[in-house]
């Protein structure tokens, strides 16, 4: 998928002196009208996009995308071999499709929002739903009622404070991992429980945890491998052994000051390598590999950016890390793979006036 961003248009007026040999008024008026007709309407900067957030199915045969339909964002699935087989799989008159992801080649999950209301005016939770790629077999997985779960369960699905993960997961079964926000004795948010939910039966199984976890990280096989917990001003990062499910602390450090061995996990590469961002004694954050067996950060960075902390996401194929999508003063792709470097150069040549991001 190619994401295109409009270039910045900047005009600096330095001042001018009227010229006696100016164009006739009619010519000036015509030129002004022509220029004005090329300018986008003010409303276009605030309107929802016609198409957004396209995602390929795991086998690459289909693409799911949000499409504006009757002034609401719908979820549409397009068959790439036959675009005439385009199907609207979810569309609501009183709301918009929010986040979505493929569960497997046949099924998707999604939540909802309302783009016509400000955040404080929304009276419903995002909910969570599953649907087949042809729009059939729709099932609610989480409620749209925004209440705090106090242990009661009067519905066959999870409560309103249940959310999709930012990671796609394995995408090879009917089940997905979701997170449910937890609350302390004063009903203040304090962490997230992790559940494995079957999208065909709504059956949910909680992943056991000995700690209050603020962040869960899935590995390259889509299974829980890291849990980050902050309690009493100390952040601890735990590794969950995939075979034994035993939790092992990798490091702990002051939550707001960092410290020796402190890092933030970014994700796992297809070969199981953990990539993290860390200072490692430097002024700026860099991208590093993490040695899980010895619980230490590799001394040499994979990527260090001049003048910026590393802020990015991994881009991987099925068998190797290809590069990262990097945020500095703008977004860009940094490729480690020669073939992707060549593809980026070709696209940039074809689209010279856009910022071209490949996912």
Question: What features would you describe in this structure?
Answer:
With 359 residues, the chain is mainly beta. The chain has helices spanning 25-38, 338-350, and strands at 2-5, 51-56, 62-69, 72-79, 87-90, 96-102, 107-113, 128-132, 139-142, 162-164, 175-183, 189-198, 204-206, 215-218, 224-231, 234-240, 247-254, 264-268, 274-278, 286-291, 296-297, 312-316, 321-327, 331-335, 355-358. The strands form 7 sheets. Strands 2-3-4-5 form a 4-stranded antiparallel beta sheet, with no helix packed on it. It has a 4-stranded antiparallel beta sheet with strand order 6-7-8-9, with no helix packed on it. Strand 22 (312-316) and strand 23 (321-327) form a beta hairpin. Mean pLDDT is 86; it is low at 1-25.
Characteristic terms for this protein:
359 residues; 4-stranded antiparallel beta sheet; 25 strands; disordered N terminus
In short:
By secondary structure, this protein is mainly beta.
CA(first)-CA(last) distance: 6 Å
Mean pLDDT: 86
Question: Radius of gyration in whole Å, from Cα?
Answer: 24 Å
Shape summary: globular
Number of continuous helical runs: 2
DSSP E strands, number? 25
Strand content: 35-45%
Give the fraction of residues assigned to helices.
under 10%
Strand order of the largest sheet: 2-3-4-5
Poorly predicted regions are 1-25
> Given the helix and strand composition, which structural class is it?
mainly beta
Largest sheet: 4 strands, antiparallel
The H/E string reads: EHEEEEEEEEEEEEEEEEEEEEEEEHE
Topology:
Layout: E1 2-5, H1 25-38, E2 51-56, E3 62-69, E4 72-79, E5 87-90, E6 96-102, E7 107-113, E8 128-132, E9 139-142, E10 162-164, E11 175-183, E12 189-198, E13 204-206, E14 215-218, E15 224-231, E16 234-240, E17 247-254, E18 264-268, E19 274-278, E20 286-291, E21 296-297, E22 312-316, E23 321-327, E24 331-335, H2 338-350, E25 355-358
């Amino acid at each position: 998928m190619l994401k295109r961003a409009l270039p910045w248009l900047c005009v600096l007026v330095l001042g001018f002196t009227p010229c006696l040999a100016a164009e006739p008024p009619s010519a000036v008026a015509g030129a002004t009208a022509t220029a004005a007709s090329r300018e986008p309407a003010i409303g276009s900067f605030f309107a929802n996009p016609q198409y957004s957030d396209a995602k390929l199915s795991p086998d690459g045969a289909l693409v799911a995308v949000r499409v504006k339909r009757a002034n609401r964002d719908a979820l549409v699935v397009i068959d790439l071999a036959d675009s005439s087989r385009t199907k609207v799989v979810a569309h609501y008159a009183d709301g918009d499709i929010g986040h979505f992801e493929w569960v497997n080649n046949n099924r998707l999950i999604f939540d909802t929002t309302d783009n016509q209301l400000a955040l404080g005016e929304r009276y419903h939770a995002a909910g969570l739903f599953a649907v087949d790629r042809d729009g059939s077999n729709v099932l609610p997985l989480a409620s749209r009622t925004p209440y705090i779960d106090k242990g009661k369960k009067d519905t066959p699905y999870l409560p309103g404070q249940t959310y999709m993960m930012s990671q796609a997961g394995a995408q090879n079964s009917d089940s997905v991992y979701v997170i449910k926000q937890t609350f302390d004795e004063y009903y203040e948010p304090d962490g997230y429980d992790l559940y494995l939910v079957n999208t065909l039966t709504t059956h949910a199984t909680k992943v056991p945890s000995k700690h209050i976890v603020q962040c869960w990280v899935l590995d390259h096989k889509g299974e829980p491998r890291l849990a980050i917990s902050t309690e009493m001003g100390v952040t601890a990062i735990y590794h969950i052994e995939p075979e034994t499910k035993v939790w092992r602390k990798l490091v702990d450090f002051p939550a707001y000051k960092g410290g020796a061995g402190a890092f933030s996990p970014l994700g796992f590469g297809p070969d199981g390598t953990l990539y993290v961002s860390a200072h490692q004694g430097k002024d700026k954050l860099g991208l590093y590999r993490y040695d899980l067996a010895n619980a230490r950060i590799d001394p040499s960075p994979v990527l260090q950016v001049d003048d910026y902390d590393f802020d990015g996401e991994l881009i991987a194929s099925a068998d190797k890390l290809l590069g990262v999508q990097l945020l500095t003063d703008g977004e860009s792709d940094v490729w480690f793979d020669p073939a992707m470097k060549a593809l980026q150069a070709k696209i940039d040549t074809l689209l010279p006036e856009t910022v071209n991001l490949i996912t």
